[in-house]
Amino acid sequence: MQHYWQIQQYLMLTGLSSAYLAVAILDDRDIRMYRVWSNQEDQQRLIREAARFWKCVTENRPPDSMSSADYDLMYPDSESGSAALCGESDLILISEYQKIKEQEAELADQRKVLEGEIKRLIGECEELRCGDNRIATWRTQNRESLDTKALKQEKPELFEQYSKISSYRVLRIS
Fold this sequence. Notes:
Strand order of the largest sheet: 1-2
Number of helices: 6
Mean pLDDT: 93
Radius of gyration: 25 Å
Number of strands: 4
Distance between the termini: 38 Å
């Protein structure tokens, strides 16, 4: 979809009625061409969204609706030893978060039980079919990975040469 919106922006700026999008499908070694037509309604939406964004910039305030990932980018590092203060309304937010996390855990447990039942149905086969329809697959897959523990022990200089430290923040609710 991001390509569609980018093309709509280009069509709006150039005044052209259509453009072609070339897509390379690497697994199939295939190239496909798609024609995208100018859509005035979508272009007007782009203008409205750009104006809304620019208003946030000029007023030096974040947009109303931001995702958790947006805040990760906005606040990549924490100040050591600092604490933000919260009020009663904030405690309601925390409580709602905790309830949803509990529901997620319960649903995950239920999903695991159902996964087990589906695996029992498939057994040693690779697929579960209902008539001509494939319902599920449970196939053997192989993955090659690096044993970093052994590499660090046996070739510490090589491990040090290629290791990197990444930094991120973790949200934990007490």
